[in-house]
Design goal:
Helix content: 25-40%
CATH topology of the largest domain: Rossmann fold
CATH architecture of the largest domain: 3-Layer(aba) Sandwich
GO biological process, one term: maturation of SSU-rRNA from tricistronic rRNA transcript (SSU-rRNA, 5.8S rRNA, LSU-rRNA)
Protein name: U3 small nucleolar RNA-associated protein 25 homolog
Number of domains: 2
Shape: elongated
CATH superfamily of the largest domain: P-loop containing nucleotide triphosphate hydrolases
CATH class of the largest domain: Alpha Beta
Strand content: 15-25%
Number of helices: 20
Family: Belongs to the UTP25 family.
Number of strands: 25
Main location: nucleus
Radius of gyration: 27 Å
GO molecular function, one term: U3 snoRNA binding
């Protein structure tokens, strides 16, 4: 167990300045309704602007609810799941049937569907008191889309023209094949994990899920308003009029930085309002979510993926509620008057708080129907515990009523089954064990879920241009937990002694886990080894000193953390021997760090007589990272081979 003194503090990692632990108190404001005007108050902590009103004329027409019976929106939310499906999904380890499907653009789809035997009682209907009760069930998997037709996707007519206008301005002029396939899946309410988002397709992906999110909210509002009109002259509320959850927010979008939230909300505006309509608090939004961009150096420029991710406002503490109407989008709305919440994990984590805090709040998560994570790989570098904390507070019974009309609440929401109806859309640059584990264990959509999983070839190792042997050392372990200790023992017994005995200098040890970093640092101190360290908490002054000592050979080892490299992406000089204590989480980091190796003396003169080396430790639990680096086929051979060591020499080495 790691001592309390090594537990992480809150830091702004871009400038590595410590963030104060105190958080601002948040006042809750009520939502008032008068003369059919919906008065939306400011979001948490907003005291600078006057309350603004959304007039009845801004709302959708009540006669515009034109959803068809085969609309996946209705099919997904209208009916209860059967007791058998509930039993499968609520089990400790839910079982899913697996099917591999190949599509032209997305590639290999792993389709997971709840493993339920459809016999007698488990069929789509059941006789109850002489009436036929229809249960919700996983629907037929869609065919590959053959044309870019928004109508086939059941997109509401109110936003189709805005979407078409936006697409005309795009490079393709219409939906791309990738967007066609992605929309075909998400508009049918499958949960999707797409870990192949990159610089070339990120905007396509973002537009696709934005269309779906706005479409979902428009349909939700239309259905409620349509039912409101029908119920005006009735005292009772028939079962078919149950159209709501326990609270209003239906879509939650998690984004790592304000710059990404800014792009998402601009996409919402173009889809919902086009070139017209009213945007409340637009000026404040632009001021707070744009600007404050990092200045990228011209000398020794950062990699392109870094420049794209960190351009714009990189503040990672934010949250915003959005209220959607036909002619108006209200930004900074109170969460309980919001349809959509866009936030960072840290922003929500501070609001949710911990047990015992008096002003904590998480009721707004009780009825989320669509969860979207944009650039999810960044969450693992910020603080993955924040994401897990949010998931633990999803779909819990609200602590307060929030003016909920229980007669209009869906039965499955009252039963506490909302988590089985939630659609999860996870977009990441590469597959990571933390994200995959969360998707597999916590995101159990009754309609099924899809993982896009394409084989990797040839892997990032092909980008290594340094002529040095790359030795991959297999560490045998029985469990994930034991792998931590087994890797440490292998390192201190098999790898480190080679460098200690020969008194080698310029040895960089790359460490993905901060806790492994602490363990190695303590061991090096105990063994009185000469080393310097650079981690996410190292001050700028110490970073400069460590880099100088390492380059000039005044120390033997440099302990270097992945989290620091992710947020800073500095170019290290003077490396002659490289040890990957564990495979990097990001495949591009492997080739990037390897290419830092330099056969130079400390005075800068070339010394081609020097021998450089690269050593990598891996276990069978690192299969995802291994495949991303050496390719899927080679990774499979390595993990099934009896040889403990595999050597690679890059063919295009210089």
């Amino acid at each position: 167990m790691i001592s309390n003194k090594f537990k992480r503090k809150k830091y702004n990692l871009l400038n590595l300045a410590e963030v104060p632990e105190k958080r601002k108190k948040i006042r809750k404001k009520s939502v008032k309704t008068e003369n059919q005007k919906q008065q939306v108050v400011k979001n948490l902590g907003d005291n600078n602007e006057k309350d603004e009103e959304i007039s009845p004329g801004d709302e959708f027409e009540t006669n515009a609810d034109e959803s068809k019976e085969d609309d996946p929106f209705l099919l997904h939310l209208k009916y209860e799941i059967s007791p058998q499906i509930h039993a499968v999904l609520s089990g400790k380890s839910p079982k899913f049937t697996k099917e591999i499907i190949n599509w032209p653009s997305l590639g290999r789809l792993l389709y997971l569907k709840p493993d339920v035997n459809l016999d007698g009682e488990q069929s789509s209907s059941k006789i109850v008191l002489n009436e036929k009760q229809v249960f919700a069930s996983a629907r037929k998997f869609p065919d590959v889309p053959k044309s870019s037709d928004l109508n086939n996707l059941h997109i509401k007519s109110q936003i189709v023209s805005n979407i078409e206008e936006k697409l005309k301005k795009s490079e393709n002029g219409s939906l791309t094949p990738l967007q066609d396939e992605l929309l075909s899946l998400i508009c049918n309410y499958y949960s999707v994990y797409y870990p192949e988002v990159n610089q070339s397709n990120i905007e396509q992906v973002r537009l696709a899920y934005s269309i779906h999110a706005i479409n979902h909210i428009v349909k939700t509002r239309l259905k409620i308003l349509h039912h409101n009109a029908k119920l005006q002259n009735r005292l009772d509320v028939p079962e078919e009029f149950r159209d709501q959850g326990l609270v209003r927010p239906k879509v939650l979008i998690l984004a790592p930085f304000k710059s990404i939230a800014y792009s998402i909300i601009l996409s919402f505006i173009s889809i919902l309002l086009g070139n017209g309509g009213n945007i409340m608090n637009k000026k404040r939004f632009i001021e707070e979510y744009s600007g404050d961009t990092l200045i990228m150096p011209e000398k020794n420029p950062k990699p392109l993926d870094y420049q794209q991710l960190f351009s714009g406002n990189t503040d990672d503490n934010f949250k915003m509620g959005l209220t959607v109407t036909k002619k108006c989008l209200k930004l900074y709305a109170d969460f309980y008057a919001s349809d959509i919440i866009v936030a960072s994990p840290l922003g929500l984590r501070m609001l949710i708080g911990t047990e015992g805090e008096g002003n904590r709040d998480y009721d707004f998560l009780a009825s989320i129907e669509i969860l979207i994570m944009d650039q999810a790989q960044v969450f693992t570098m910020q603080n993955w515990e924040h994401v897990l904390h949010i998931m633990e507070h999803m779909h819990l019974q609200p602590q307060r009523s929030h003016d909920t009309d229980l007669s209009r609440a869906r039965t499955w929401a009252l039963n506490g089954w909302a988590r089985y109806y939630m659609q999860s859309l996870i977009f990441s640059a590469n597959p990571l064990p933390e994200i995959t584990g969360l998707f597999n264990s916590k995101m159990n959509n009754y309609n099924g879920k899809i993982i896009i999983s394409n084989p990797v070839s040839p892997g990032s190792i092909s980008q290594v241009i340094v002529h040095a042997p790359q030795m991959f050392h297999y560490v045998s372990s029985s469990t994930v937990t034991e792998a931590i200790d087994d890797r440490f023992q292998s390192f201190i017994s098999d790898i480190l002694p080679r460098f200690k005995e020969s008194n080698q200098k310029h040895v960089l040890i790359y460490i993905p886990s901060y806790f492994d970093f602490v363990r190695l640092r303590n061991y090096f101190k105990k063994q009185e080894l000469y080393f310097v360290q650079i981690c996410e908490y190292t001050t700028e002054k110490k970073i400069v000193r460590a880099r100088s000592k390492f380059f000039h050979g005044e120390t033997q080892y440099l302990l270097y953390t992945e989290r620091f490299h992710f947020f800073r992406r500095i170019q290290l000089r003077g490396i002659q021997h490289l040890i990957f204590y564990q495979l990097p989480s990001f495949p591009s980091f492997y080739s990037e760090i390897c290419n830092f190796l330099q056969d130079v003396k400390k005075d800068g003169a070339a010394d081609h007589g020097l021998k450089m080396s690269i050593d990598v430790l891996y276990t069978k639990y690192d299969v995802t990272q291994l495949a991303s680096i050496v390719g899927t086929e080679r990774a499979t051979r390595m993990l099934t081979s009896e040889k403990p060591v595999h050597m690679f020499m890059t063919e295009n080495a210089k």
